[in-house]
Amino acid sequence: MQAKLSDFNTRLLSGRSLDEQMDNALGMAQALGFEALVYDYSPVPLDHDGALITPTVLKLRNTPRDWHSLWCEEGYYQIDPVQHLAINAISPFVWSYRPEADTVLQPFIGQSHAPVVSYLQDSRMTCGVTVPMHLPKGGFATLTGLRADTKGSTLQDVRQTLGDFSLISHALQEAAFPLLVKEARTCPVRLTKRERECLRLAAEGLTAADIARQLNRSLATITLHLTSAMHKLGARNRVQAVVRAVHYRLLDS
């Protein structure tokens, strides 16, 4: 297994971009019988209310053309039952959208997931494996391999690939991570440099007057920055603004 992981790493590290790495990963996944790949990454996967945030990076291979717009613009990501399972999972899992299949997905699917269920059934991508990867500082990524479940033995075939597909997933994440900083969009909440600076000092216990003295600005200016940051973060007070800014990693140096 160690030799196989080394081989996967070598093949993926040869990609000079995330797109090249995805192409290499697709080739390895196809050798296992998968027809399509979905990779997503976000430095902050949940908002402050615990709802899924649209991933900052979504890479697709051999999926229908409208997949990206549906998942990123039409809200399918937020009602994707596989993603809801993945965010709370630490181990790879096999899933199927066939009602009679016995996977972790069947007890979880509800009416709210109907658009995603119908889409995947219409696309004949009803079976797959998903590898959740919880990263340092709260980042989150998944790699999902999809295939058509056209015969009774398909699900068992997928289960037999679980180990190798997991190795591919972690090798891809290791190779891709240095590139994600360049590819990832910023947090959905955008603060100015001065707003972040004021919140960072507030997080250290400084009052608005203390911050004004330290930054050599007027109290009114500092209060304006803090109030603006509160509004952008939807916070009721400065303490809540600091908590939410930390959650979204906006105060990272």
TrEMBL record:
BP term (GO), one: regulation of DNA-templated transcription
Record's keyword annotation contains Metal-binding: no
GO-annotated molecular function: DNA binding
InterPro entries tied to this protein: Sig_transdc_resp-reg_C-effctor (IPR016032), TF_LuxR_autoind-bd_dom (IPR005143), TF_LuxR_autoind-bd_dom_sf (IPR036693), Tscrpt_reg_LuxR_C (IPR000792), WH-like_DNA-bd_sf (IPR036388)
Coiled coil: none
Pfam families found in the cross-reference section: Autoind_bind, GerE
DNA-binding among keywords: yes
Highest taxon, organism lineage: Bacteria
SMART domains: HTH_LUXR (SM00421)
Keywords in alphabetical order: DNA-binding, Transcription, Transcription regulation
SUPFAM superfamilies cross-referenced by the UniProt entry: C-terminal effector domain of the bipartite response regulators, Pheromone-binding domain of LuxR-like quorum-sensing transcription factors
Location of the HTH luxR-type domain: 184-249
Protein name: LuxR family transcriptional regulator
Lineage of source species: Bacteria, Pseudomonadati, Pseudomonadota, Gammaproteobacteria, Pseudomonadales
